[in-house]
Write a structure and sequence with these properties.
Layout lengths: L1 H6 L14 H11 L11 E5 L3 H10 L3 H4 L4 E8 L1 H9 L9 H24 L3 E5 L6 H7 L6 E10 L13 H4 L10 H18 L9 H8 L8 H7 L6
Amino acid sequence: MVKELLRSHTSVRKYTGEIIPKEVVRDLIETAQMAASSHFIQAYSVIWVTDKEKQQQLGELSNNAFQFQTAGATFLFCVDFKRLQVAGKKQGIEIVADSAENVLAGVADVSLFAQNFVIAAEAEGYGICYIGGARNNPEKISELFNLPDYVFPLFAMTIGKPTKRNETKPRLPLDAVLHENSYDVEKYDHLLDDYDATLEKYYASRSSNQKMANWTKQMADFLIEQRRPFIKDFLAKKGFSWK
């Protein structure tokens, strides 16, 4: 049952507008908290955005306003070392938050927490969409939600009852991501050609938004230049200068 649920995941961008009850949201968050955490630091916080005006602004700042209009609930997932700073002060210690290692640990914690939330939500019949676009305007989003130093937004998320279920998008072939005993770069040439053909067929035949595209071209276009170059300076303002 769990494997079938995981294999059925698709992103949902249009919902029925049905509001998710408070007790359901709290239960999903509490379930998400059981995710693994690096050294049990639990370096995450989530902002549940119930204010309609802030919800609209978050959508606009994330360049994803459309799906916020019909979502049953919206959230902002954040890396959080402020709570750990308070914990340290209770012990008379000034914690060292400003390190690349802590940023990586925080990102891992938030991602595991959020994925637990997603699985719990989908098990209840809801659909979700991760919104990395929250990193398009992290400073303005931080101001909108009063995020203090040592806290920064990683991604937003919409959740709700989907108006339709999309087809699952084919992932990379198993052998493209699984290596045994040592890393094998030589296999990518033929495996990626096969994957391009698979995705071209998927995009051309899916029930909506058909297009001619493949994975290697999409990735080349996506990574041809540095994305969000302001992130490093933004993190430094939040207290993470990568010492």
